[in-house]
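Lab channel / #folding
Pinned by the channel admin:
"Please post every new chain as: sequence first, then the structure tokens as a reply. Keep commentary short and put observations after the output so the thread stays searchable."

First post following the new format, from NK:
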Amino acid sequence: MTDLCAVRGLGLPDKQQVAASFSKAAGSYDSVADLQRAVGQHLLRGIPQALTPAQWLDLGCGTGYFSRALAQCFPAAQGMALDIAQGMLRHAQPQGGAAHFVAGDAENLPLHGGRFDLLFSSLAVQWCGNFAAVLSEARRVLRPGGVFAFSSLCVGTLHELRSSWQQVDGQVHVNRFREQHDYQRLCDASGLRIRSLEVLPHVLHYPDVRSLTHELKALGAHNLNPGRPTGLTGRQRMQGLLQAYEAFRQPQGLPATYQVLYAVLENQP
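Reply from TO:
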């Protein structure tokens, strides 16, 4: 089955650009990753309590923060951390957590089948153009009864920033993400049993727009879309952005909304 995102030209970033961007951000990522830690902790709490994995995989491990958390949750298990960004792996490996650190693509895992009891992936699969392939690979490498727990971002993420840029020049300045119903449909068709699937909003607040955009750059998650503007943003356009975003201001500051999908799937025996 083909992912509709690829067919409809959603325009997800090129994998190598994603890998390069996150590799470059490896050193600054953890200093600004409050959202990522909150989302990953929520996903950890959603793992079935009865699950006692012998082997787990942190898929899209980034700096290895949750590889280390998984090692604490399942001290008797053997862990593996995988990421497409070599810079992230170089940053993560000295800190431990997993027994093995592997460079690889979630759509084509360089791993034997039927190996893992748990696949954990927090805020990584939104960068995959063919999510049907991710699900197929997850099913292949999971043992019967194994669990694939993942979080991702949906349409509506950073809608304040997107709307503000639309008022300035109408160009693509904000990363695109899938609709919730596309995730639901693809999971339904995957052969994995859906134990839970829900979208929850996470809202962060910033004193000004530059604080938000600097954080996105430090995360490696700034605008990576095909068709994004090239060159520097002129002063006039930046002033237009700042003015447009002020319409969203709340007492806590300027909001940035993330629509986060949480799913727990099970490989049926």
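NK: The chain is about 35% helix and 25% strand.
TO: also worth noting, Residues 4-155+176-202+259-267 form a domain with the Rossmann fold fold (CATH 3.40.50.150).
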